[in-house]
């Protein structure tokens, strides 16, 4: 007989070994608790080999997700998910140079599991009028770096131009005045937000303008007026 190995407290996938149970023939059995709350008696060999890593809920979730994807291949969210992966991992995709070639990826949670992305989207303000937007364009697709935004918000949040010398979107150095200018563009209209001695101050004004636009629930026209007032006082 092999040496007894105490598995109490050890984690195997979603299962945590609680205590030894009555043997079944020559098999050593353990009472385990699943992350979902269910308890089940499982052979130690199946735990150690990785053959069993949940009470059965993982398999049910996998089947449910597979059925969902099969039945919702035309859904907009499914299309968004597939397009993200193409941009990041298919070198033949026309947008790959701006995504995958720059090291932009999907987090493992989303890349391997559509339902994980789907649940995040529904819980974080998804609607058919919005598109997925990366808050920091130099980082990938992950819950902490993504939001649902209007096309205008995405236009404001574009990647920094190659000819930008300050390294800050919406802030440029005016060599004639010897100051930093903060500005923002909405629907092709450029709003100057003021000239500043320091880069930090100009950057703050630009960031404030972005927040004013993104979080303001008023109409676009009201936002344009608001930003116009900001530029007048800058």
Automatic annotation (TrEMBL):
It comes from Desulfitobacterium dehalogenans (strain ATCC 51507 / DSM 9161 / JW/IU-DC1). InterPro entries: DNA-bd_dom_sf. It comes from the Bacteria. GO terms for molecular function: DNA binding. This is AP2 domain-containing protein.
